[in-house]
């Protein structure tokens, strides 16, 4: 009797383990009910993606809904990612590094663009002609974004202490307005606002350095990537379709950007001319760029001095998804 009881117990345990294993496998293969992404005026390919419904078409047969959220800046995109409000978010590389250093559960899987989207800007009649002229001045910048980091790097390069400048934390559009009405002396600008001010007010970009602009990152939440790797790759597939459309249709891209961002076409044209859409796979180039930006961020106490920048960038940048989709063709 005892032997029979033992056999039954072992059999029951085996059945339970089998059921548990099947349940676990089913769970791991579950598809998401919806995929949540941001779109941003500083990320033209995201606007193309949304406008033409490439993602909606890609996931229609799967019954997966697509949910869009507007990001007004990298800081907002990263807030959305960190708070689990979106699965994918568009942000500048250096801003993404700051977020990762602060523990955000994100990784970079695709390069949307290499932009020169930021510069230091002042009004047409200003006496500010160089970075050194910023001593004792008010400079608008959005904390935690590429323009802010660009400002820090420019000050460092030109030997101006951060404490010698009054940085006024304003969202990008508000910074442009504050420069126009004289509330600040200079602005760490961002397109398309920057291009608009150039055309409408004669604003001057008195300090430019393309190498201080970090890349346009498409980031994903780590938990989404772990649960749904095949869907990450399919999102990249749709982004690739949008990127190729921009490359093949430059004039139509100008019109689309102007329409979606509610800006004049000449402003949209300047913004697109400052973007390179030819290198979508992240890798060593982006790692090196972030490490250089990270050094200034550590010196400025934005990133903890104990942070290992090489380890951070290695954990952040994951080229495998883009490589499979793009280089695997």
From TrEMBL:
* Keyword vocabulary terms for this entry: Lipoprotein, Palmitate, Signal, Transport
Pfam families membership: NMT1 (PF09084)
Q: Name one GO molecular function term.
A: ATPase-coupled transmembrane transporter activity
Record's GO cellular component, any one?
membrane
Solute-binding protein family 3/N-terminal domain sequence ranges: 34-249
Gene3D superfamilies for this protein: Periplasmic binding protein-like II
Subcellular localization, per the record?
Periplasm
Q: What InterPro entries does UniProt report for this protein, alphabetically?
A: ABC_SsuA_sub-bd, Solute-binding_3/MltF_N, SsuA/THI5
Give the UniProt family note: Belongs to the bacterial solute-binding protein SsuA/TauA family.
The job of this chain, per UniProt, is described as:
Part of a binding-protein-dependent transport system for aliphatic sulfonates. Putative binding protein.
Name-wise, this protein is Putative aliphatic sulfonates-binding protein
Tell me which species this is from: Siminovitchia terrae (Bacillus terrae)
